[in-house]
Amino acid sequence: MPELAVSTWSLHRALGPTYRDLELHDIPRVAEYPYGQGSVSLLDLPDAVAAHGVALIEICHFHFPRTDHVYLGMLRERLATAGVGLQTLLIDAGDISAADDEARERDLACIRDWIDVASALGARQARVIAGYSQPDDAAAVKRSSAGLAALARYGEERSVRVITENWLALSMRPETLLAILAGAGLCADFGNYNGPGKYDDLRRILPKATSIHAKADFPEPGRMDAADFRCCLDLSRAAGFSGPYVLIFDSAGDEWTHLEQLIEVVRPYLSASDTAVDEIWRAPLREMG
Cys-Cys crosslink for 210: which of 105, 127, 185, 274, Cβ 3.0 to 4.6 Å? Predict the structure, then answer.
């Protein structure tokens, strides 16, 4: 049965500083402040999430101020105390499709280190970027698929499922994305597709989705495009999706207030699938949008 989760990206202004370096060190990471000082620490976030009735969280790698064993132990304890599970560690850097062998191997080594962090925290999944190459680069597609497969095996040995996402050019075309998967899992992001082909693209990838980034468009603060959001949710239900819906909010306005709006729309989809939405799955796209 689907579950509800929230990503730290949805709270990037509340969290404040970011730490972009992909390499791990035993010292505090260098902070940047593109979103201000923040009002809550990553260690305090599990309690805040639980207070809003959410029991799963995704953490972006750039929200970790430290990755030493002491800090990871504290974070794992805070998650356990709050009753919040770590759904996915999002590794938001690294190019496993790079043509430069040395650069690619360096990034793969860093990603393996982050998978170790995910394992230490008891995360279910680690999300890896498919790469920064173009989708018509057949060699890059092969390198991405091979790298993802190797990382999936590495993660399996550590009880962490490695997944990728329909994000950036290489993995945006459904046919290319599905070719890259190579046994890895998939996070399907509603908001990463747009235009007239959005629903058709989602329809093609949702049967492979192990998690979903449930992102709605907010044309202005407080006003959600609920019709589009529900259509995406209906498609996921019709595809038989049973994983977590991870709330994604990155528009203007108060983060918690808008997350509550997302929760209100998503909550009915956490129950068992409704066979009535099979009509939506089969309907011509012009009738859906």
Answer: 185
Number of domains in the chain: 1
- Which amino acid makes up residue 72? L
Question: How many whole angstroms separate alpha carbon 76 and alpha carbon 124?
Answer: 13
Between the alpha carbon of residue 53 and those of residues 157, 256, 264, 270, the distances in Å are: 32, 12, 11, 13
pTM, entire model:
0.93
Residue 201 in any domain: the answer is yes
Instruction: Report how far residue 194's alpha carbon sits from residue 167's, in angstroms, rounded to the nearest whole number.
Output: 12
Nearest CA among 202, 201, 246, 199 for reference residue 227: 199
Give the residue-averaged pLDDT of 41-46: 98
Give pLDDT tens digits for 186-243: 999 999 999 999 999 999 999 999 999 999 999 998 999 999 999 999 999 999 999 9
Quick check: is 220 in a domain?
Answer: yes
- In the DSSP assignment, the letter for residue 95 is -
Q: Give the pLDDT confidence score for residue 272 in this predicted structure.
A: 58
Report whether 49 contacts 82 (CB < 8 A): yes
User: Please, which residues have CB within 8 angstroms of residue 75's CB and are 6 or more apart in sequence?
Assistant: 42, 43, 121
Please report whether residue 108 resides in a domain: no
Strand ranges for the chain from DSSP E: 3-7, 56-60, 85-91, 125-128, 161-165, 185-189, 211-215, 244-248
* Rounded Cα distance, 177 and 51, in Å: 36
**pLDDT, tens only, 121-137:** 999 999 999 999 999 99
pLDDT, residue 182, reads 84
Residue 76, in any domain of the structure: no
What average pLDDT does the structure give for the chain?
94
The identity of residue 197, as a single letter, is G
